[in-house]
Design a protein that fits this description.
Blueprint (H helix, E strand, L loop, with lengths): L3 H24 L5 H30 L4 H9 L4 H18 L8 H13 L23 H8 L9 H7 L13 H21 L5 H18 L7 H4 L17 H5 L3 H11 L7 H9 L16 H29 L1 H16 L2 H6 L1 H10 L3 H6 L16 H6 L5 E4 L5 E4 L1 H6 L4 H10 L13 H17 L4 H4 L1 E3 L5 E3 H9 L4
Antiparallel strand pairs: 1-2, 3-4
Helix pairs in contact: 1-2, 1-5, 8-14, 9-14, 12-13
């Protein structure tokens, strides 16, 4: 029933409502990590819907089929009332055929979205996470870890160590980077990309991959990419180096040079470079003093193509490594939290794990973690080392239910006598005393009111003034008889001639 102009009006309205919803979503305060992720996914959904509406609206304005132009011409024709009654007839006919049809306003959709935003406790999970991932707080690399420790020639490490080195691909020897290794790093890259897409839906993974590819291309061409030095990544790889055979009298002496040096010398002559150490030494020594090389020893032309194919495989593996480095840097925060979480679990005894399994399963499953526990703290008790409220008896034992207020600290409140006593030597109280022009000495211990501190300071200044040394009163003189008097008395007696 909608005309083209009505569809255009609806898309304009939808765009404005979407823009308003995105602004409200961004300005809304998020309480907790889970709500932040859900908000980002809602915002991504709104942005996709906005882009889709914009594309459709652009198509209508382009009017490639000319239908919009015809409709506008009909509305602005000589008999506009005829067009009006024609549309009215179509509407009545539609409602006659569909008498129970209910029109849902566009505002209903955005009202439901606002309810989801304002009531996060009733909000369902926007994305799926495994129990180990804790709704995006931690990484779950157990499958990748199993593939890593099954690689041949790789040092076997525990899971905690693997969390710290899973992106140290440059430490893997180049000869171990085969097809099995490529399957492993592909699985690792696939997980990291999926995890980043779930915790950061607003991030464009295609843009990150393109940036990683551009950086990799520059580093590969210059030979500075990690784990692939220039001699193995350049265009002139393994061209070989000639060897002077006049210094060797037997092939056994050549064998002492090793496989790599013999291979380089054979490649420089264009000979076959495969086989054991003895075969390579004998093959190279047979060319000593020969003007023409034996055709049976010359390498086939297909060897160059094989070398190029090997170079292409190496570059493909290195490109995947570059993307792993890129996405691993995006989850550095979750990586550190995962390592800490695994170490904390491993430090617990079997009994502690059994007692707390029910309590830990909920935070790890829904990802709310400490946020829900803080909300379920009606007495507002302080949190312990495990992020949970301390027992109430311990709260009473330390006197944390007693509050002490200090006017000098800006009416800051301290919980418990211990915190109150130690605050006199802390920065906040020292700063308040400095603002009053009073030294923060032991005389002012337990003084919390500004008036009391100022009065005590005046009293101390008067006391110090009275104790100050005055020459007339404190300087002593002795007369001829041995009498000791102060300076003022001595001068008075001297003027009277009594001395």
């Amino acid at each position: 029933m909608e005309t083209i102009l009505e569809q255009q009006r609806r898309y304009h309205e939808e765009r404005e409502r979407l823009m308003d919803a995105m602004v409200k979503e961004i300005m809304h305060k998020k309480n907790g990590y889970r709500e932040t992720i859900n908000s980002d996914h809602r915002l991504k959904m709104l942005m996709d819907q906005y882009s889709e509406s914009t594309i459709r609206l652009k198509e209508f304005y382009e009017d490639k089929d000319g239908l919009r132009k015809e409709e506008v011409s009909a509305l602005s024709g000589p008999n506009e009332f005829q067009e009006f009654y024609s549309k009215l007839k179509q509407i009545k006919e539609f409602h006659r055929k569909h008498p129970n049809e209910i029109s849902v306003p566009m505002s209903v959709q955005f009202e439901e979205l606002a309810k989801m935003r304002e009531n996060p406790t009733e909000d369902a999970n926007m994305i799926d996470f495994s129990d180990e991932e804790g709704y995006g707080k931690y990484l779950d690399l157990h499958e990748c870890y199993e593939k890593y420790i099954n690689l041949k020639g790789i040092e076997k490490v525990d899971y905690v160590t693997y969390l710290g080195i899973f992106d140290h691909l440059y430490d893997v020897p180049r000869e171990r980077k085969n097809g099995e290794y490529r399957n492993y790093i592909r699985a690792l890259l696939q997980y990291l990309k999926g995890f980043v897409a779930r915790i950061k839906p607003l991030l464009d993974p295609a843009q990150e991959m393109a940036q990683a590819h551009n950086d990799f291309t520059k580093q590969w061409e210059s030979g500075t990419f990690q784990g692939w030095p220039k001699e193995t990544s350049g265009a002139l790889t393994n061209v070989g180096a000639h060897l002077d055979l006049s210094a060797f009298s037997s092939w056994e002496e050549l064998a002492s040079l090793g496989l790599d040096r013999l291979k380089s010398a054979l490649m420089a002559l264009g000979l076959k470079c495969g086989g054991t150490l003895e075969e390579r030494a004998q093959r190279l020594f047979s060319t000593k003093g020969q003007a023409a090389l034996d055709r049976s020893l010359v390498a086939k032309k297909g060897a160059g193509r094989g070398k190029a194919s090997m170079q292409h495989r190496h570059k493909d593996i290195a490109a995947i490594e570059a993307q792993v480095y890129r996405f691993a840097s995006l989850v550095s925060e979750q990586r550190a939290a995962t390592k800490e979480n695994v170490q904390r679990k491993q430090a617990r005894t079997a009994g502690e794990r059994g007692d707390s399994s029910a309590d830990e399963s909920e935070p790890d499953t829904d990802g709310e973690g400490d946020d829900d526990e803080i909300l379920c703290n009606p007495k507002n008790l302080p949190l312990g080392w495990d992020g949970k409220p301390i027992p109430y008896w311990l709260y009473k034992l330390h006197g944390l239910n007693i509050s002490y207020s200090c006017e000098i600290c800006g009416n800051f409140t301290y919980k418990g006598p211990k915190a109150f006593q130690t605050h006199f030597a802390e920065w906040r109280h020292a700063h308040g005393m400095r603002c009053l022009g009073i030294p923060n000495t032991a005389h002012f211990a337990n003084v919390t009111h500004i008036e009391d501190a100022l009065a005590l300071w005046e009293k101390l200044k008067q006391q110090k003034e009275g104790e100050r040394w005055v020459a007339e009163n404190d300087e002593e003189y002795e007369d001829s008889l041995g009498n000791v008097v102060n300076r003022k008395t001595y001068e008075d007696l001297k003027r009277q001639g009594l001395l």
